[in-house]
Amino acid sequence: MNNTISRIRKELIRNADEKTRIQGERFFKENVRIYGLKSAQTEQIAKAYYKEITDKSKSSIFALCESLWKSNYMEESMIACMWSYNVRKQYEPADFRVFERWVNKYITNWAACDTLCNHTVGTFIEMYPSYLKELKRWAKSDNRWVKRASAVSLIVPARKGMFLDDIFEIAGILHSDSDDMVQKGYGWMLKVASQSHQKEVFDYVMSRKKTMPRTALRYAIEKMPPELKAKAMAK
User: Fold this and answer.
1) In angstroms, how far is CA 108 from the centroid of its own chain?
2) Domain that holds residue 48
């Protein structure tokens, strides 16, 4: 198993490009560790090596993901996210604690947060909606990435028109947060929800626009018609 990780790392180093690494770092305010691969290259490596472990148990695959997370390299975290999503048909309730540990322990930037939460955590929540209460607990965390995770885990379900009341509840908990990463996260969640529930989201925004941070508000109304945007932005 460790041989798989070692070979992946050698391949990442072999394909790394300094220009790509520098360009990638510009997307983050935080210090990030990047080898310097295009997303498509990382995805190709993830797919190639996953073929070698498809017969492994879910717990073994999660253990490999954990090893990848520990490196704190962007490309390795992306591979971990892809692999944990690949076994989605095997998710069971106990897996939530694994995902929660990864969010708390390893996520230090928006890209890792969004990739893990949009797909792995979001799919888990669709399968086990009773865990929405855990996302609401995340929303009250002191950790900026855990708070963002509470919102962005609902992006894909929101796209399907799901969990609107819970989306509003999480947005309410995060409402006055001063962190722009949190504001953008819950604003994004509301924006996606508005594509299926435009009136409800618009009414929600209008009822709170006097106190909603402008960053969150702009994100929330981004997909709405110009006349609704103008009303929401008017003082």
Assistant:
1) 12
2) 1-83
Does residue 92 fall inside a structural domain?
A: no
The DSSP result for 114-163, as a single string, is HHIIIIIIHHHHHH-GGGHHHHHHHTT-S-HHHHHHHHHTTHHHHHTT--
Tokens of 22: 């520098």
Nearest to 189 by CA among 143, 197, 93: 197
- Concatenating the DSSP letter of every residue in 31-96 gives --B-----HHHHHHHHHHHHTTTTTS-HHHHHHHHHHHHHT-BHHHHHHHHHHHHHTGGG--TTHH
Tally of domains in the chain: 1
54, two tokens: 């498809």
Question: pTM score, two decimals?
Answer: 0.95
187 and 217 in contact (C-beta within 8 Å)?
Answer: yes
Side-chain-side CA neighbours of 134 within 13 Å: the count stands at 19
pLDDT along the chain (235 residues), means of 10: 89 96 89 94 97 95 97 97 98 98 97 97 98 98 98 98 98 97 98 98 97 97 97 91
Backbone angles phi, psi at 73, to 5 degrees: -85, 135
